[in-house]
């Protein structure tokens, strides 16, 4: 998980902290928010259920806004991670893609156009 979010998606590792009871908390910056990836020690006895939002309860799907959708999808594909939905325009100026992280959670990548459209010209 850490390699996926840090190395493939390029989220900045802000800090690594010891967890009470054993393990580490990896804090990754996502805009103004933090993604915390916990490495438990000992590891939990249960595996996750992969497959997106309708296969299990819990945190299954989240969204981040990026400015380099094509570049991100190329890196994800090159490293062998799953792209569930390639680039798709959902409305003028907004494209998305759906990918799957190593634990099976779905991540929506959203890229908004840098341009604001006015009916007769672009500024």
Layout of strands and helices, then pairs:
Blueprint: H1 2-8, E1 12-18, E2 23-30, E3 33-40, E4 61-65, H2 69-78, E5 82-91, E6 94-100, E7 106-112, E8 117-118, E9 121-122
Record keyword descriptors for this entry:
mainly beta, Signal recognition particle alu RNA binding heterodimer, srp9/1, four-stranded mixed β-sheet, 123 residues
Describe this structure in words.
- The protein is mostly beta strands and 123 residues long.
- The protein folds into 2 domains: 1-46, no CATH class; 48-123, Signal recognition particle alu RNA binding heterodimer, srp9/1, CATH 3.30.720.
- 14% of the residues lie in helices and 46% in strands.
- The chain contains 2 helices and 9 strands; from the N terminus they run H-E-E-E-E-H-E-E-E-E-E.
- The strands form 3 sheets. It has a 4-stranded mixed β-sheet, with helices on one face.
- Strand 5 and strand 6 form a beta hairpin.
Helix content: 10-25%
Strand order within the widest sheet?
4-7-6-5
Count of alpha and pi helical runs: 2
- CATH topology name of the largest domain, in short, is Signal recognition particle alu RNA binding heterodimer, srp9/1
Distance between the termini: 40 Å
The radius of gyration over CA amounts to 17 Å
CATH class of the largest domain: Alpha Beta
Number of separate strands:
9
Strand content: over 45%
Number of domains: 2
Largest sheet: 4 strands, mixed
Shape: globular
Poorly predicted regions: none
What's the order of the H and E elements?
Answer: HEEEEHEEEEE
């Amino acid at each position: 998980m850490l390699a996926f979010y840090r190395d493939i998606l390029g989220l900045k590792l802000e800090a690594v902290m010891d967890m009470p009871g054993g393990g580490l908390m990896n804090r990754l910056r996502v805009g103004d928010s933090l993604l915390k990836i916990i490495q438990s020690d000992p590891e939990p006895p249960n595996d996750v259920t992969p497959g997106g939002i309708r296969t299990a309860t819990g945190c299954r799907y989240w969204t981040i806004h990026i400015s380099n959708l094509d570049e991100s999808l190329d890196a994800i594909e090159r490293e062998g991670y799953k792209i569930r939905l390639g680039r798709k325009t959902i409305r003028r100026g907004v494209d998305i893609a759906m990918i799957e992280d190593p634990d099976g959670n779905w991540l929506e990548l959203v890229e908004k156009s840098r341009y604001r459209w006015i009916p007769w010209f672009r500024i």
